[in-house]
Design brief:
With 243 residues, the protein is α+β, with helices and mostly antiparallel strands. It folds into 2 domains: 21-121, Beta Barrel (Lipocalin); 144-242, no CATH class. It is 20% helix and 42% strand. It contains 5 helices and 16 strands. The protein has helices spanning 4-16, 32-40, 44-51, 132-143, 183-188; strands at 27-30, 56-60, 65-69, 74-82, 85-89, 95-101, 104-109, 114-119, 146-151, 158-161, 167-168, 175-178, 192-198, 201-210, 213-221, 231-242. The chain has an 8-stranded antiparallel β-barrel. Strand 3 and strand 4 form a beta hairpin. It is elongated and about 60 Å long. The chain starts with a helix and ends with a strand.
């Protein structure tokens, strides 16, 4: 009887340390840490920079396919099984080591930088571009809910930003997109920016979000005509408050 408890405990520990099956890696994984930091902090750009550069993975062990998105572009690579891990290899010699830590995906690049991802229960549709699942989750957390226009055209109207990029209640635009990376991030510098459009015609705006208050400013280009645009906040267009 004295040995029964230690043996049972050892069996439990050994069972808990059992390696995951290769197919457990399958699915779409998103960078939830970046989303939490964006919602909690004052700067979307800073949160994405600190918790990037990868925001979404898509893995298929059976076909040995691995893809990731950095919010601007996607890369496709090949999966190779290792002991209790997978290696994703990409064009140019880039590699990432993938392992499962409980319900999370832990990735390590060649420089030793680690990132953590969580699996998406309902990933984007098959024809949606890679990165859509992260974008959808970010939109829900960062801009979800009902907002009211406190200042600006349409004062008193209720505004909703959908997780699919639709916006209702703002006078004029009916589509939006947050700037996550790439040229729009470079042009905005340290500013957070939002694209608003209607009938495929639109413009960038600078945004400042403080908890449940969202300010939207015209974007003013301070660069010369022969330089890459450098956008800064101009006239404030709207102040929104989330209910």
């Amino acid at each position: 009887m004295r040995q029964a408890l230690p043996l049972a405990l050892a069996a439990l520990l050994l069972g808990g340390c059992a390696s995951h099956k290769p197919e457990d890696f399958n699915g779409t994984w998103i960078n939830q840490a970046a989303i939490k930091a964006a919602v909690k902090g004052d700067s979307l750009r800073q949160a994405l920079n600190e918790h990037g550069p990868v925001f979404e993975w898509k893995l298929d062990v059976a076909t040995h396919q691995a893809s990731f998105s950095n919010g601007f572009e996607a890369a496709d690579g090949q999966l190779t099984p290792l002991e209790k891990q997978l290696q994703a290899s990409f064009f140019g010699g880039q590699t990432e080591r993938l392992e499962l830590d409980g319900d999370e995906l832990l990735t390590t690049d060649q420089a030793g930088t680690q990132q953590t991802f969580v699996r998406v229960n309902a990933p984007a549709t098959a024809n949606a571009p890679l990165g859509s699942s992260f974008e959808k989750a970010l939109y829900q957390a960062y801009l979800g809910g009902e907002w009211k226009i406190l200042e600006g055209q349409g004062k008193g109207e209720k505004v909703r930003f959908s997780d699919t990029g639709n916006v209702t209640g703002l006078p004029g635009p009916d589509r939006f997109a947050l700037c996550l990376a790439g040229d729009c991030a470079t042009m905005g510098g340290s500013n957070d920016s939002l694209w608003l459009e209607r009938n495929q015609r639109g413009a960038p705006f600078i945004i400042k979000r403080d908890g449940d208050t969202l300010e939207i400013f015209q974007a003013v280009n301070r660069a010369r005509s022969d330089e890459m645009p450098q956008l800064a906040a101009g006239t404030r267009q709207w102040v929104l408050e989330r209910n």
